[in-house]
């Protein structure tokens, strides 16, 4: 399971011109799920994202988590995080999980993150054509992969 986590001052996702989810100061999280992923990956990454200290303290040091600042998160599924670009110019998405495997893990990740952030989690719609707008604060962008825990 892969995440792209961005520290934002605001982020929103629109589907068909309608706002499906938004957050103020907090995290914009893109999540890619592959066939080998399990619930353990979802739980580990949710905790890691909630506890990651990427917000500035009173001294300007990245020492606070999204939980510490009372921030929220916007979570959007993105199968393209598992693109393989080894051959040719057209990416392959063969490692991306099919919906019957990915949707329950996507939902479980959101559920766990919402529990950790006291409900301050909104999301897009799995598999939908979405438009995302955000203001990346810093900029701070972190890539996380549950296969790289050590």
Description:
Strands 1, 2, 3, 6, 7 and 8 form a six-stranded mixed sheet that branches. This protein has a two-stranded antiparallel sheet with strand order 4-5. The longest helix is centred in the last third of the chain and has 18 residues, at 99-116. It is of the alpha/beta class. The protein is globular and about 45 Å long. The chain has three helices and eight strands, in the order βββαββαβαββ. It has a single domain (2-145), classed as D-tyrosyl-tRNA(Tyr) deacylase (D-tyrosyl-trna(Tyr) Deacylase, Chain: A, 3-Layer(bba) Sandwich), CATH 3.50.80.10. It has helices at 39-51, 66-69, 99-116, and strands at residues 2-15, 18-23, 26-32, 55-56, 62-64, 72-77, 121-123, 130-145. α3 (99-116) links the parallel β6 (72-77) and β7 (121-123).
How is the secondary structure organized here?
Elements: E1 2-15, E2 18-23, E3 26-32, H1 39-51, E4 55-56, E5 62-64, H2 66-69, E6 72-77, H3 99-116, E7 121-123, E8 130-145
Parallel strand pairs: 3-6, 6-7
Antiparallel strand pairs: 1-2, 1-3, 1-8, 4-5
Helix pairs in contact: 1-3
Features:
150 residues, two-stranded antiparallel ribbon, DTD-like_sf, 23% helix, D-tyrosyl-trna(Tyr) Deacylase, Chain: A, RNA-binding, alpha/beta, 8 strands, six-stranded mixed sheet, 38% strand
């Amino acid at each position: 399971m892969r995440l792209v986590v961005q520290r934002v001052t605001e982020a929103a996702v629109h589907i068909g011109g309608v706002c499906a989810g938004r957050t103020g100061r907090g995290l914009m999280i893109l999540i890619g799920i592959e066939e080998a992923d399990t619930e353990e990956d979802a739980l580990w990454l949710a905790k890691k994202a909630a506890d990651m200290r990427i917000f500035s303290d009173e001294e300007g040091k990245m020492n606070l988590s999204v939980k510490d600042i009372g921030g929220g998160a916007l979570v959007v599924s993105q199968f393209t995080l598992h693109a393989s670009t080894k051959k040719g110019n057209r990416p392959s998405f063969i490692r991306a999980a099919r919906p019957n495997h990915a949707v329950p893990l996507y939902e479980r990740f959101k559920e766990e993150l919402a529990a950790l952030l006291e409900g301050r989690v909104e999301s897009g719609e799995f598999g939908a054509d979405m438009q995302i707008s955000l203001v990346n604060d810093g900029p701070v962008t972190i890539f996380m992969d549950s296969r790289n825990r050590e």
